[in-house]
Design goal:
elongated; single chain; about 110 residues
Length: about 110
């Protein structure tokens, strides 16, 4: 009998740590839900929505600090739209360079015949 049967693979461990991403609208709807249900405790609201109490608290704080809006930068967490555009252009350049390298190798292989 192997004593390592209960150990999950590395992939299972990393998959279980992945946190869900919630968009701006979900966050705003969550704040609205809590405000519209004063009869429920915050814990009950969190359970109904499938989020943790600390997540709700963080979103409420962000909402209050943003004067009734929810700051949201999307995936990638860029500090500005310019930074997001720079990252996109860098990816595009990298992809073009990779394609050029493949073409160079293909030409060198075909040129030897």
């Amino acid at each position: 009998m192997c004593m390592y049967n209960n150990i999950r693979s590395k992939e299972d461990l990393t998959m279980s740590r992945k946190q869900p991403r919630h968009d701006k609208q979900f966050k705003l709807d969550t704040i609205k839900y809590v405000q519209e249900h004063p009869d429920l405790t915050k814990e009950e609201c969190c359970k109904n929505l499938g989020i943790s109490l600390s997540t709700l608290s963080r979103w409420e704080k962000q909402y209050q600090e943003s004067d009734g809006d929810m700051p949201y930068r999307g995936s990638g967490n860029y500090s500005s739209d310019e930074q997001k555009e720079i990252a996109r252009l860098r990816r595009e350049l990298r992809d073009a360079q990779d394609a050029l390298d493949v073409l160079k190798k293909a030409i060198s292989i075909l040129g030897k015949d």
